[in-house]
Amino acid sequence: MAACDSGEPPSTIPAPVVSDSAGVRVVSNRIPPTGVPEYATLAPQPDVEMTGGPPGAFVDIERAFTLRDGRIIVANRSTHMIRYYNPDGTFIKETGGLGETFGLFQDLSRIGRAGGDSVWAYDVQLERLTMLDETGEPVLEAKAPGREFLSGRFGDGSFLLIPGWRTELHIRNPTDSVRRDPAEYHRWFPETGSETVVGTFPHNEVLVLEPEEAEGIVMGTPPFGRQTVRAVGPGRFYVGEQDDFTIRGYDPDGTLREIISLEGVDLSLTPGMIRSAREDVRPEDGSPEAPWVEDFWEAVPDTRPAYGAMLLDALGNLWVAEHVTNLTPPRNWMVFSPEGALLGLVAVPPNTRVFEVGRSHILGAGPGLPGAEVVRRYPLTRRR
Hints:
With 384 residues, this protein is mainly beta. It has one domain (20-382): Neuraminidase. It has helices at residues 167-170, 271-281, 293-297; strands spanning 17-21, 24-30, 40-42, 48-50, 61-66, 72-76, 81-85, 91-96, 108-113, 119-123, 128-132, 138-143, 148-153, 159-163, 177-179, 182-189, 194-202, 206-209, 218-220, 229-232, 237-240, 246-250, 256-263, 310-312, 318-321, 332-336, 342-347, 353-357, 361-367, 373-382. The strands form seven sheets. It has a six-stranded mixed sheet, with no helix packed on it. The chain is globular and about 50 Å long.
């Protein structure tokens, strides 16, 4: 160990400042002057790699996750199929497919683990929840209330419902401006069909235009626009608005319980970042852009979003991805304990979309053959 020592003192994270505000726990963290130390490391090579065979390559993976018995589930959105694999990555079976009858999907938009080794799958087009038993057979379906997205499942079997991208949400009194319209979140109980309102939160930023070159209204996410991100666990859900590094934790009924913040995050937005982002979205075939596209780039803010996606790991830690200015997935993730204290930083392999963080692994997908993806599992060693 002494021979491996770099001779530099290890970076330490100062304890957060914790206070109480009307029953809400406020946890204020600060980035150390020497930078955020590593919380965990990944093995340089995956211990499982799945290309999709024998049924075929993975294209447009919705999610991958691990069941309690070690089997790996991969939802292939392009084929509307759910595939089951052994812990070593060998194929077992697939179920689902395109259709409207029981067990089929028009848009396999969300999927997750339910009680035991059962699985839930949601079709936003059919507004339908399908439950699969431990063998992968569909056993139950429920009609969801309205065209909403399932953001995640709570431990009691209820779901957090959020509004999707809906025109009627954004065209009230349209003006040429960047705006965040209010969005009502619901908690849905499939067994009874009942739902309750858990609160109103800002929707993603949207730029609404009425350009002369186009008929009607043009809407879209402005460059570096703030989005509302979420992570749902058995007994809590987290919401982040990306204006600054602040994340709020709520009970399933919508009661605010904690506010987690991190000071010292660089939110500067440089001309180089803007140029890089612009190049990423230019048409590859050289076709001309619509005239009103330039209006979107005139709406670039002064700062960039404070972070990207969020997820909860198997220990209840909150993982928050760095914000990236291009279309490649983020590499660096900040990790916070269930109590909201900053634990450290984790760097994942390049071009890896992280779906799951277990006790000793991460499961993600990256590019494979042209137009296809590969699911990889990397061993994870927690250092702190």
